[in-house]
Amino acid sequence: MFVLPNKKVDCIRASVFKVASLMAHGELFSFAVPVLASIYCGLKAISTSSNLGACDILLPIHYVYGWIGEYFETYYRVSHPQRGVQMWQISAEKMAKHFDLVDARKLFQQVNVHNLHNLAML
């Protein structure tokens, strides 16, 4: 179940259960907009905070890492992926490939913009 907290993290909104139920039955959802909105909201709260030491903002940046890894194919795939759950395929310790500066530049230069639509459904 995915929860993008707004302020307090001690409760789950009722709408989350409906989406979780639909996802459990195979319906696909795009998390790009809510994840980016949550990140922007968190960044705004950080930038306007008067005390950064007491700032307890949560950013779902792991989704961004997942999208980047999927887009640039920078993760190794697990040997036995769970059917239907795409993020699980790359979830494990040290699953990211390592690149030096030259390899990273080559990776960014060979971006295929036609694959972007697939990333929205991760």
UniProtKB/TrEMBL annotation:
Name used for this protein in its record: Aminotransferase-like plant mobile domain-containing protein
Organism expressing this protein natively: Solanum pinnatisectum (tansyleaf nightshade)
